[in-house]
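Q: What changes when heme C is included in the input?
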Amino acid sequence: MSDPSTSKPDLDDDTNVSTDAAAVKRENQMFTQGSEPISLWVILGGALIILIAGGVIAGSIFDYNNYVKPGYVRATAPGAASAATLPKSALDAYLKIGKKAYTACSGCHQPGGEGNAAYPPLANSEWVTGPSLRPALIILNGLHEAITVDGKTYNANMPSMGSGMEAKQLAGVLNYIRNSFGNTSDSLVSLEMAQNALDVSKERNGGQVTATELNADYNIDLVGAPLDPETLVDPKTLLPVESNE
Ligand code: HEC
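A: The predicted holo structure follows.
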């Protein structure tokens, strides 16, 4: 037994509290059974399952079509109608379609309609700006034999451009050449008038037209109500829209 009177402080004691505590800290933590942390892989796996299940459920139970009447079309927010569906002036709408269709012509008649030594100009041409049935039949059937345009005579061959052409394209390209290159017309060729050209061309049922034939039989305007260039039309159908006023 040690004698308390002789007991001295343990000067050899090299216990260092902070390093001992650090060693304890490094030990794996013990958890109460049932509250051990879950492996990261289990969490990720679970998240993946929930994600897929969510997709499946959303695609069936919550499918948009289950809650929307067939034929329902979402209305555009007021003032947010897109430019593509807003009514346009007939002139703008037809010129847009016509400009596209004219790419089939520009290789010969040139982008600016000025023509060249081989191809007659569409600018300042009485065939373009005159009675509307003549240029319509030239486009739909092609043209051969001599023709005088703006004081110059050409004697070449234009192939038919009418294959697959619908009233929309025909009206577009007619309005384009009649209102570009410095040409202007007071009224536009409507879809009704373009359809008249398709009908006349079908009835004629021949090959390329000639200037002589055009002047003898077709020196008239297309039948139908022309369009005022300012009329508002639906840019998709090219048909006039009811004004809101
Ligand atoms: C392969 C070349 C070629 C293409 C493509 C062509 N044309 Fe022509 N076009 C001619 C030629 C050549 C003549 C004159 C024919 C003649 O001498 O009889 C002509 C004549 C015309 C005329 C009457 C004369 C005039 O200059 O006003 C019009 C209108 C016309 N073309 C419009 C069109 C339009 C619109 C298109 C496109 C849809 C088109 N052409 C595509 C070669 C072409």
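Observations recorded in class: The chain has a mean pLDDT of 89.
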